[in-house]
Each structure stands twice: as structure tokens, then as C-alpha cells.
Design goal:
alpha/beta; D-Maltodextrin-Binding Protein, domain 2; 3 domains; 7-stranded mixed sheet; globular
Amino acid sequence: MNSDLDNDLLRAFVTITRTGSFSRAAKLLHRTQAALSLQVKRLEDDLGVKLLERSPRAVAMTEAGETLLPYATKILSLGEDARRALQPSGQVETIRIGMLEDIAIGALSRVLERFTSHHPHVQLEIVIDDSQALSRMLREARLDMVIADRQQVDALPAFSWNERLVWVAAHGFRMPSGQDAPVIAFGKGCFWQAPALAQLDASGISWRVVLSSANLGAICSAVEAGMGISFMLEYSVNRSALRILGAEDGLCQDGSVQIGVFLREGGGRSEQWMALYAAICAEVATGRGAELPVVA
């Protein structure tokens, strides 16, 4: 009689496929890479098939691995559903997160939505503000977690990565020939504006400000309408409506901003809190070459 599949082994397999890396998965699961490799080997031996192909640069699923993945995901999800169903309905944990608007409009919002749907006993309170204001609220223990510009937060980040600062335009927009490029600028206090404009100067592009706003949504709407070009984090770019300018537009894009995830000092960290932190780090690390942190 075959034994039931081990959830720990399935979790190791699923985490590796989601992160695309043994090292990242090991950090998320608080295990060594050697221990994780052993778990995968045990799962493969149990099933009698090879699940993963490992190379120096990537990890790929075999045909058997692709077959197993949806079943493994469903098994783990059912276990989480059972645990949630048995939790006392009155126990609600509130986690307070502060972030830049530039981060909030990216894919992270979908990660937070999925997290809350899977953790109904966790209530998220989101604060959108600039980095300096978020730094102050973190220092005053009014926030549990902050995602902001590393250079503007008075704390050491638990996790950080470099995010490209790019110039964007509507898909149908073309840089004017022999005229100043119309720039849609941010209001006063934007620390990224001077280095972004310096990119235009370094590329020999003359420019003039045609609209200025402190509201990112208003700026995105103006750019999508074809009124001009503006800059933002690559993470924030809605590629269905905007394109990133490049060499064909006469622009050399080489700017970046270091974004950090900062944690409130002191206080206990629940299993749900650690799951949220891991989900956020996994989202922002994807495709950026950042090493995932170990959640203490």
C-alpha cells in the first residue's frame, strides 16, 4: 500500500518551482540547499520519477514535474484551508504596511489580494506616502513594514533590490524632431526627478515641462494620453498602455533606485506575518536577480 505524499516534500517542490531557484527556496523555507535537495530526492524516489532538471543557471520541471505541480499546489492549499477553518473566528491579526505609490500600483497589489483571500484572519492596513513620511511612521512604530527608497529611510532594510528608473511614453508617441521633448514632471520634493532629467541631458535631448503634478495617477493618465514623456520605476510601468523609451528614441537609460523592505523593531512575528513578508520579497525579487532573505 502506497503511503500518503509528505506535505513538507511537496512544499519544497512547489517553492522551488515558484522561485526558480534552490537557493531562494531554501531561504524562504529556512533550510540549507543541501537539505532541500535531499527533500526533492526523497519525493522523486517516492514517486519513482524525476521532477526537476537542475543546471548552474536555472531549475526546470520535467514533464512529470509539470504534471505533479497542480496536484501539489491543491494539496497544500487544502491543508491551509483546513487550518483556517479551524481557527477561532474572533482572532484577527492586523498588519500595517506602508509603501510608495510607485510600488502600490505594480503587481504587488495582486500579491496582497491573494494573501488576504488565503488568510481571512489577517487584516491588512495599507498606507501610501513618500519615503520620508513612511520612515517616520516606522520609527514611531505606527507601521509594521515599509517598502520605500532605501536612501530616504532612517533604518537598515531587511531586504533590498535595485529597481530601474525609466522614461516612458504612450505606445503611439514619438519623440519630436528638432523640438524640445514634452516632459510630464512630478511636483517639488521628488528625489528621483533630478537624476531622471540628467539622463535626458546626458543623451543630448532638450526638454520642457508641459505638466507638473504630485499625483502619480494623474501623471500616468497624461502620459497614456500622449501629452508627453515621464519617468517611473520599471516595476510600475503598465506595459499595455506605456512603452519604455530606449536607444531608438535617442535615450540612454542607466538610472536606478535602491528600494528596501524595512521592518519594525521589536515585537513578535506570527506565522501569517512571516508568510506575508516572504510573499512580498518573492514578488519583488522575481526577475531582478535579488537574493531572497531569510525570515527570522
